[in-house]
TrEMBL record:
NCBIfam families: cmk. The lineage of its organism: Bacteria, Pseudomonadati, Atribacterota, Candidatus Phoenicimicrobiia, Candidatus Pheonicimicrobiales. This is Cytidylate kinase. It catalyses: dCMP + ATP = dCDP + ADP; CMP + ATP = CDP + ADP. Residues 8-226 form the Cytidylate kinase domain. HAMAP family: Cytidyl_kinase_type1. InterPro entries: Cytidylate_kin, Cytidylate_kinase_dom, P-loop_NTPase. GO terms for cellular component: cytosol. It is found in: Cytoplasm. One of its GO terms (biological process) is nucleobase-containing small molecule interconversion. It holds the Pfam family Cytidylate_kin. It comes from Candidatus Infernicultor aquiphilus.
């Protein structure tokens, strides 16, 4: 374990359940939880609000340098409020889940300048330890020294079902096929970009959640953490 407390990195493709499980484990252990996807989503929210082109790297980079991003735990008891993200003081936790953000976020997240700007923020957030950070490049680029690295997978169909259910429950009128298309498209852009692509770090443990309940995945990970704490390794 690192001197400053446990560091857990979770990576994996879109809608694989990283946030659901990550938050549950963080709450159980009293850890800080950082969803780095929310940071890219918040930037995308601001880019769209300012009517900037998602390809204009220089303008977006300028916008990022003038943007304040804050992450706060609003309540430790409620999972929904375990993690809120603020951009220039505005709480955008809910708004960044809009399908419009899904359609644009990967275009912005692939821009090297933007990723470089956001790396130091993410590294800084992890420095105290006792943290779960999730995203696409956490185990590989942001926290390569993480104590425990997990890589989540689930079938395309299962991931589409989960995201479709989530979005329709929130009242979005969206087509199942469209949800699937967006997930696949994002995965393709995220894994094929040159700079810090979605990848399984060499020493990450693979977690396939396709046929497992949330409780089962949670327990599987708690076991990995317990073993790590007992042996000092996975
Ligand atoms: O929740 P979901 O799995 O749909 O996505 P997310 O984790 O909120 O991430 C949204 C998008 O941000 C991803 O599709 C990536 O384009 C980008 N992202 C990234 O590039 N690097 C990260 N570490 C996290 C997210």
């Amino acid at each position: 374990m690192s001197k400053k407390g446990l560091i857990i990195a979770i990576d994996g493709p879109a809608a694989v359940g990283k946030s659901t499980i990550g938050k549950l484990i963080a709450q159980k252990l009293g850890f800080l939880y950082i969803d780095t996807g929310a940071i890219y989503r918040a930037i995308t929210w601001k880019v769209l609000k300012n009517n900037l082109s998602v390809n204009n790297e220089d303008l977006i980079s300028m916008l990022v340098s003038k943007t304040q991003i804050k992450i706060n735990r609003v309540s430790s008891n409620s999972l929904k409020d375990y993690y809120h993200i603020f951009i220039d003081g505005k709480d955008v936790t809910e708004e960044i889940r809009d399908p419009k953000i899904d359609q644009n976020v990967s275009q912005i997240a692939k821009l090297p300048k933007i990723r470089k700007q956001l790396i130091s923020l993410q590294k800084k957030l992890a420095k105290e330890g006792n943290i779960i950070m999730e995203g696409r490049d956490i185990g590989s680029v942001i926290l390569p020294y993480a104590d425990i690295k997990l890589y989540f997978i689930a079938s395309e169909e299962e991931r589409t079902k989960r995201r479709y259910k989530e979005l329709t429950a929130k009242g979005y009128k969206i087509d199942y096929k469209e949800v699937k298309k967006q997930i696949m498209k994002r995965d393709e852009i995220d894994s094929q970009r040159k700079y810090a692509p979605l990848t399984k770090a060499e020493n990450a443990v693979l977690i396939d959640s396709t046929e497992k309940t949330i409780e089962e995945v949670k327990n599987e990970i708690l076991k990995i953490i317990k073993k790590y704490k007992e042996n000092g390794k996975k």
